[in-house]
Amino acid sequence: MSDVKVLAQDVHKSFGDNHVLQGINLTIRKGEVSCLLGPSGSGKSTFLRCINHLETIDSGRIEVDGTLIGYREHGDKLYELQPSVAAQQRENIGMVFQRFNLFPHMTAFENITCAPIFVRGERKSEARESALALLEQVGLADKADAYPRELSGGQQQRIAIARALAMKPDLMLFDEPTSALDPELVGEVLEVMKSLAETGMTMIVVTHEMGFAREVADSVTFMDGGVVVEHGTPEEVLVHPQHGRTRAFLSKVL
Ligand code: ADP
Ligand code: MG
């Protein structure tokens, strides 16, 4: 059994004339927590969205657990999967965005149980039980009946994490999960992510939180200009970067 979780090979993606991903190569191992850094516009969000086929790729390949994402292969050509099949692949991949996009008309509890019941077809009793456990896990057992507007940004983001986990993903993608939060609320979200990392979840986290990267990440990936410039341990990339572009970026954010 291979321990590779995510494999990206020479992934290209353009929006019109804008060649955003210019040959991404990256391997993420099972249980690895990788922080993805890079200047604004370097393609970090686009790459995350390609991993769960929210965006189509123009060439190259992305595999999760050895399975091609979003496409089937025939000869040397790739054909896009039917939306329903792509959606099934996506169910195993949780995603948390910068803006806590909870459903505003549903309680925290309903936000968490909605997809397991209606998408995964879980029994209500089962979905409820796991929702309670997830609320406990993110430290919000007492907020089950609260509506998003009654929660702080940090609490909403913790519910968003619980909601993603309710689909029982084995890969979690975080796209700047704390960037929209007031500074005093960042820590509680990072704590939840840290405890998730300790469960062995494979995580790719776009973040500018260098403390988190140093303390929690197994690896740091630095992207610039649509390619992975450096990938290594936090020590290698953050303390002893090999590339001028990495050093220039770090000098601005550290
Ligand atoms: P990052 O997350 O690193 O800041 P993004 O992946 O969001 O970078 O964006 C990279 C580039 O792709 C930017 O120039 C952005 O304008 C462009 N882009 C992203 N999504 C779209 C889209 N859906 N349509 C057109 N251009 C897009
Ligand atoms: Mg982004």
UniProtKB/TrEMBL annotation:
Pfam families xrefs: ABC_tran
Organism expressing this protein natively: Leucobacter rhizosphaerae
Keywords per UniProt: Amino-acid transport, ATP-binding, Cell membrane, Membrane, Nucleotide-binding, Transport
Topology of the protein relative to the lipid bilayer: Peripheral membrane protein
UniProt domain ABC transporter: residue ranges: 6-250
Protein name according to UniProt: Amino acid ABC transporter ATP-binding protein
Predominant subcellular localization, coarse grouping: membrane
Top-level taxonomic group: Bacteria
Family: Belongs to the ABC transporter superfamily.
Keyword Transport: yes
Subcellular compartments: Cell membrane
GO terms assigned for molecular function: ATP binding
